[in-house]
Design brief:
Layout: H1 2-28, H2 30-36, H3 42-50, H4 53-94, H5 99-125, H6 129-150, H7 158-198, H8 217-231, H9 239-270, H10 274-284, H11 288-301, H12 303-311
Length: 313
């Protein structure tokens, strides 16, 4: 028991010190800090995977206090993101959870924390990043309009076109915000998990992308949203408009990934070279709508089964 207690304290102090060094580099070193910011959770992830949850939670709390001492309010804000993130990654490894579970857990945590920090920044610091972003776009369109007007090329109804564009940008922001958060979670995983594996931890792996399959419920959600968009019209800027626009964007993005995964599966079964698979993936982007249709057909009719029966006899 005494040996375990000593090990818990020794490794805890070492991981807190390493966390503090990485956090200080991320806060105070401009260029290098961008790269180190992705590995700040690593010490706490390793510790959380090796020790019990109660011990790991205590170390994370101490690390958050250290982050405030090192970086002040900004250090604490950043620490509140990466500290618990390391705990979630390590605890998932210790509990032998799948990589998909880990992605969903880290993504949802980052989503909730980023939303909470945004709300607090508006309430207490009177700093609204989204409004500042919209204001920047408005200034850009105003300057563009002045330039076009000076050369006599200002199109008719330019102001109304700008207004509609800004409303659309405001409407789709939640979708892009969610997408950016989950991409960030994915980046944290693909950077930290290989490092944790080198540190002798048994980390899970993502299945190959060609085996990516959405639940069939996603297809029903997409059909419901599509039918509603045909028969129900919402005024631009209303809650209903905001809801259906963002639901459509997220579902189309998921079905696009489903379609691309089917393309990967087809190229694999046919035994085609990897460079052709990569080329087809980039080619699928301008054919976004067609790729979505491919994803819908794959999800609804199990095209993979047909491909497997045809080419693997």
């Amino acid at each position: 028991m005494q040996r375990n207690q000593t090990s818990y304290l020794t490794y805890g102090a070492a991981m807190i010190a390493l966390f503090a060094i990485l956090l200080a580099m991320s806060v105070y070193v401009p260029v290098l800090g961008f790269f180190t910011s992705f590995v700040v959770p690593l010490p706490l992830a390793w510790y959380s995977a090796r020790f019990e949850r109660k011990q790991a939670a205590f170390v994370v709390i101490i690390a958050l206090l250290i982050s405030f001492i090192i970086g002040g309010v900004f250090g604490l804000i950043f620490g509140l993101l990466v500290g618990p993130l390391g705990f979630i990654i390590g605890d998932s490894i210790r509990a032998k959870k799948s990589k998909l579970y880990m992605l969903m857990a880290t993504g949802l945590f980052l989503l909730l924390m980023t939303a909470a920090q945004y709300i607090l920044s508006v309430l207490f610091f009177n700093m609204n990043v989204l409004k500042q972003f919209i204001a920047t776009i408005e200034v850009y369109y105003e300057q563009l309009g002045n330039i076009m007007s000076s050369v006599g090329q200002l199109p008719e109804g330019y102001d109304e076109l700008v207004r509609q564009s800004i409303i659309l940008i405001e409407s789709i922001m939640p979708s892009y915000f969610i997408g950016a958060v989950f991409i960030s979670a994915w980046l944290y995983l693909i950077i930290n998990l290989p490092l944790l594996k080198k540190l002798k931890l048994d980390v899970p792996k993502f299945p190959k992308f060609m085996h990516f399959r959405l639940p069939k419920a996603v297809l029903w959600y997409y059909l419901i949203v599509s039918i509603f968009s045909l028969f129900v019209s919402y005024e631009v800027g209303t809650f209903g408009y905001l809801l259906f626009v963002n639901a459509a964007i997220i579902l189309r993005a998921l079905l696009f990934l489903q379609g691309v995964s089917l393309i990967h599966y087809y190229f694999y079964v046919k035994g085609l070279p990897k460079w052709s698979m990569i080329f087809a993936t980039f080619f699928a982007i301008p054919l976004f709508t067609f790729t979505i249709i491919v994803g819908v057909l794959d999800l609804g009719f199990n095209i993979r089964g047909f491909i497997k029966d045809r080419y693997k006899k």
